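[recover] target loaded
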């Protein structure tokens, strides 16, 4: 089931990312991030209310649930801010690639912190998938793999690796939070966790924008329709991501998420007629093969 949840989530996330990118061209990036949470929250609450009305329940909340939820929500905001910082120090593609190191870091941190050990072949497929992402990113940026991997004295690379760590810990925190809930279904547990995390993120970013970027709200008001679509696609995508995390190791889900890169490149080709280079085709093939093998081994 986690594969189906993940694929649905990817579809909505690719759509949300495209919409949010358009929005970020008109308003500050952090404001666009807040839109994702704030405009998604009403849809999350409606979904939770519908599930409750249908008889779904959460029987108890543990202290660990709240701790994991808070940690995951804060870490996702930190990771997003760090990623934006990387974009100012390195190119968009290289910054994205550093962020995608979360697939390997999720596997390692999941094993160390929660005993979610992968087999040798599974770990090899996770690494192969990241290698495909690396090939696409650094070659498109005219940068050598050696240069990418050399993080000594490289502030952009160091922040990029830290970004991946925060995204990895976010995924692991979400999974652990959901597993703490005694609920009637994975759907209800995932939706409840999502509501808690998103409420906290909305409040934190709202406070920041009020202090640092107050004019953002008047700018957002000009793009209500697009903001609503960002919120809707974000809500649906997040629910399915959370259900995927609940039903499989976070490292598996993160490895599957790498398929977003070839989908994004194909989207750019179909929509904007951007040229696809040979190394990108090879990189995309590696990603797809590694994900396919991870699913069926």
């Amino acid at each position: 089931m986690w594969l189906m949840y993940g694929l649905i989530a990817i579809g909505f996330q690719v759509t949300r990312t495209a919409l949010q990118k358009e929005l970020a061209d008109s308003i500050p990036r952090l404001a666009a991030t807040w839109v994702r949470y704030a405009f998604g929250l009403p849809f999350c609450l409606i979904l939770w209310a519908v599930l409750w009305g249908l008889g779904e329940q959460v029987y108890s909340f543990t202290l660990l649930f709240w701790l994991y939820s808070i940690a995951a929500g804060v870490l996702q905001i930190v990771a997003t801010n760090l990623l934006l910082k990387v974009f100012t120090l390195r190119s968009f593609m290289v910054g994205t690639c550093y962020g995608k190191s979360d697939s390997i870091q999720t596997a390692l941190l999941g094993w160390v912190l929660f005993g979610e050990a992968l087999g040798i072949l599974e770990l090899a497929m996770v690494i192969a998938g990241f290698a495909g992402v690396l090939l696409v990113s650094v070659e498109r940026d005219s940068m050598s793999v050696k240069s990418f991997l050399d993080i000594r004295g490289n502030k952009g690379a160091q922040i990029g690796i830290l970004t991946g760590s925060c995204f990895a810990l976010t995924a692991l925190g979400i999974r652990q939070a959901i597993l703490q809930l005694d609920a009637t279904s994975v759907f209800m547990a995932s939706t409840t966790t999502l509501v808690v995390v998103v409420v906290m993120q909305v409040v934190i970013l709202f406070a920041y924008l009020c202090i640092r970027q107050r004019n953002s709200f008047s700018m957002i008001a000009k793009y209500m329709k697009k903001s609503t679509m960002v919120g809707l696609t974000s809500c649906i995508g997040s629910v399915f991501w959370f259900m995927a995390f609940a039903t499989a190791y976070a490292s598996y889900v993160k490895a599957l998420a790498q398929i977003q890169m070839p989908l994004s490149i194909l989207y750019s080709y179909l929509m904007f007629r951007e040229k696809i280079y040979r190394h990108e085709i090879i990189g995309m093939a590696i990603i797809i093969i590694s994900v396919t093998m991870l699913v069926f081994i």
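[recover] notes: The chain has 15 helices and two strands.
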